Amino acid sequence: MSNKTTRTRVVRKKKKRRLKKRAYFILLPLIIAFLTIVSYASYLYIKADSVLNDSYEDDGREKSELRESKVDPNVDNVSVLIMGVDASDLRNNADNARTDTLMVATLNKDDKSVKLVSIPRDSYVYIPEVGYKTKINHAHAYGGTQATRDTVENLLGIPIDYYVKVNFEAFIEVVDAVDGITVDVPYELKEQNSKDKAGAIHLLPGEQQLDGEEALALARTRKLDNDIERGKRQQEIIKAVIKKAVSVNSILKIDNVIEAVGSNMTTNMTFSEMKSFISYGTKGKNLDFETLTLEGQDYQPSKTYYWQLDEVALQETQEILRKHLDLPAQNTVTDSNEATSPEETSY
Asked: Taking residues 135-140, what's their average pLDDT?
């Protein structure tokens, strides 16, 4: 064998060794990254299972009275009542707090669409718990979650399958957990913070990054407009939080989001039922997310101000939601013939 042939084989062996080393250098980080992602995902799953199951409360009701059978969110279209409660450790009012925010989300499993309707807090509606009409945000103060749930079912004429109740701290901590959200502030405003300090939050108009306290102030303010515009802002803020939470840059912050939600939330959804909603979020930019509001007009029969709902528009909204849940149409407005409230001072 010639020296040239020998040298050629030696060179080839060296090249192969170098290629193997390069392959190791390239593959090793990829393997480590893959294992890290799997480990982190497993950690989040275990943590979510623990934390969110701690938020679960058995309300003693297997199904809504407006359902023939119990729903399964893996296969059925369902509704979720979202309650933002005006409660905090500072106020020590968890048992008799009003709902500062009320929204109902209906979810359609077939087309992975969501409709989110905001209910103005001053809406003049029938409260089954007390037997007369007054502001809808009083329902929680009168009878907690169940009274609010019954009131919303009576108002919208749809079953409320699940509920999620959060307090101020949850909202602030979730926004801070994703390092703030970008929203458009419609006008200059000065609002109190979560510690009830007047004028603590000062925002100028325009699109900007807000932290948790600032986002809460924007969500709560209604000094320069009304409950309808307030509801629209809250819907936009919720969408901004969802968009930020599912972004690539926030993946490693999901741990903090889980902690923030879990420690400030109560729900009748188990972790297993919550997982069924993941498919809606994974649809990405094509997610059909429609926001609705309840039209009406100012109503002040005495010293107390109310939002008088437009019954024709209310019936239209009822039918939109019923169709989205694949429920049969109804012919009457649920809230139209109920007893009126006694005169009361502003709550």
From this structure: 94
Structure tokens at 140: 């929680």
Specify the range with the lowest mean pLDDT, choosing from 102-111, 172-181, 186-195, 257-266: 257-266
Three-class SS state of 201: strand
d(CA 94, CA 87): 5
Nearest to 234 by CA among 105, 347, 125, 107: 105
First to last CA, the chain: 102
- Beta-carbon contacts of 13 under 8 Å, excluding residues fewer than 6 positions away, are none
Confidence of residue 336 (pLDDT cuts 50, 70, 90): very low
More confident residue, 283 or 328: 328
Q: Which of 17-26, 114-123, 324-333 has the lowest mean pLDDT?
A: 17-26
Give me 268's structure tokens.
């009748």
DSSP string covering 39-64? HHHHHHHHHHHHHHHHTB---S-SS-
* Cα–Cα dist 141/133, whole Å: 14
182, 208 Cβ separation under 8 angstroms: yes
User: CA–CA separation, 19 vs 295, rounded Å?
Assistant: 69
Question: SS3 for 210?
Answer: strand
- Pairwise CA distance, residues 80 & 71, whole Å: 12
Structural Rg of the chain based on CA atoms: 26
Tell me the average pLDDT of the chain.
80
CA distances from 287 to 81, 109, 243, 246, 322 (A): 20, 12, 11, 13, 20
Return the bridge partners of 306, or none: 299
Coil, helix or strand at residue 265: strand
Amino acid at 91: R
